[in-house]
């Protein structure tokens, strides 16, 4: 696939990049702007060229350098790797290799670099879920000080940090920025709007359940809707094949853990109130003290990872996976399950990442698109479980963010920082967002381009323009070592999914495993006064009698089902 601008290999008839005249970079930049960006930018053409000129000038000391960066494999990063990296290389003379690997592999590489000090990659796009790790270990460059100090000469004066919507997720309790958001997506409820608003379907649902079919507000309504659609003949709506009322995944794989740490537990109501994360108990069930030191995960130490609300959350997920999902779903991973609703047999999904929106509007999504290309589906806030209370976190938002490690040599970090700013720049951000639909800039969300495109995106633009978006947040600062703790989740949850253990047994093992890691960190003292300081164990009943999480088991975990009309919901986002 060509994009109209020349690659670095076509630049110079054998000339080295160092030998290129100064104007060559801008020649390449103009070719790139003509072929790839056009008017799909919030900047005028003159301002685009001015920004590109800054990159050309700032990159001159590093021309001929080869750097390596890494990210997970999603549409946005594929665009960066295949289109923006070659363009940056051609414009600046810095040869970038942008590797695409699984998210678990990204975390593993980062962990290895932290432990060994070996410079494996010059920059990482890793989730802001690691903010608690980066703040405590101080092995990631503090970008606030970097931009004012060593990195000042390679920091774009047009970066405009205030335009980024996710910097609160990448800022530590010390007020310093540790990561720069590159892409963001939320987990929302997804459903077939055409089916939910069809008169026959609505009539049949109300006749069976006694209330209106609509966006479920709570898990009880979600379960009724899942039961209603599973096995239903929807051929009168043009649907083919077996219909299912739920979509999920259950393979024992690192991505299984994300399903639960990424707010499933908080949607059930396991943690405490608080935004962006519950305090003192967060959505991992980890409690911290007034100094932000983790003090426990099991109920015996005041945590909630093995609490009744957590057991309820996992039990419901397994039940819905078995009863209302395609038989193949139990053997799927996150990336395999994501595109399935686009095939046309899924009525709703509780927890659907908006990163898959691109799959829902592309060439292979005909089953869920109208003839004019508008979607037959919509997205809305996910319903909450029986333990959830007003003021708690509503859902998860991924913020894959550029991270510079202290172990990366300064010159390589500077070159990588230039690339990070290029792929997040105002010049390219509207086009990148148009491809991947993972918004990071307020100016992009509010651009005329996305006003025009909004009707094709099923509520995505309305969600990101609404004040509600701040109620979706990544993992917070309660988690002192994300790589070490995250791997415990998929292994233990996997035991519950497979039936090897009951949900209670699996969660008892999980919280105990988390406390082993916390205890090791405490003994090692590697995080100083910011690290864990475990509470003494006491009877769980003591903590269950205290306000907030962990919460005692409800006498009845089935609430009265409640739904809301989608159009009324969208209106509330606009208010």
TrEMBL record:
Gene Ontology CC terms: periplasmic space
Keyword entries, A-Z: Cell membrane, Lipoprotein, Membrane, Palmitate, Signal
Residue numbers spanned by region Disordered: 544-575
Leader sequence segment: 1-24
Pfam families: SBP_bac_1
Subcellular location: Periplasm
Main location: periplasm
Protein name, UniProt field: Carbohydrate ABC transporter substrate-binding protein (CUT1 family)
